[in-house]
Amino acid sequence: MDPGGAGAASSGVPYPKTKQRSTVNFYPDHLEKGPDPYDPRVRRRNIITVFAVLAGILVLAAIPYTYRQFQQPEALYATHAEAVRTQAVERGDVPGFVPATATQIHARRNRDTDQRFVRFSYQPTEAPAITAGMQRVSTEAELERVPVPSPGWSKWWLVTSRTLTGGQGEYLEVYHIPAGPDRGYLALDPRTLHGYYWSR
Asked: Domain range for residue 109?
């Protein structure tokens, strides 16, 4: 008995039709083909394009940094004598109360606002002379009212408003300079022997 022969035909069940492969050409030969990605010339051109795009991104990323460096020039003086020799003290980039024994003096000045940011290392015995004539800011309410601007990204500047009022604030000695060419604030850290000054 033939299961796929007359019996299948007499049962009325149609035979499954076999799919035929389409002979339609969806990409006619007269159309222009794209570049071969394996062609050495194409690969070389693609590599050049990638490097050009990366270079453009790096240039764009460097613009804010370059502008900031021009707007807020920064300097490091190994000693106070070097700051004097380069006229940084005379220009006011380094405040007058910074002692002659100070070292590692970082100075940054905003050309637009004329605001100054300075960090220096000092000797503990110099602290009374440094803060002579300044007003101590000690209560929490007073510290909360102290404005602490940011000089932008500078790894040597660690003082913020949260620093003064947070857990680190209890270790800092904050002073107000109400008048004069160095009007602003000074924060001394007796642990690291760093002084942070910002003008107003």
From this structure: 73-199
- How far is the C-alpha of 126 from the C-alpha of 132, rounded, in Å? 10
Q: According to the model, what pLDDT value does residue 46 have?
A: 75
pTM to 2 decimal places = 0.65
Q: Say yes or no to pLDDT of 193 above 50.
A: yes
DSSP 8-state code for residue 146: -
Distance CA 197, CA 148 (A): 10
- Going along the chain, which residue ranges are E strands? 74-79, 103-109, 116-121, 135-137, 173-177, 184-189, 194-199
Report the alpha-carbon distance of residue 33 to residue 39 in Å, rounded: 13
Last residue of a domain, one of 71, 90, 121: 71
* pLDDT at residue number 127: 97
Q: Alpha carbon of 196 to those of 41, 108, 156, 172: distances in Å? A: 58, 12, 10, 10
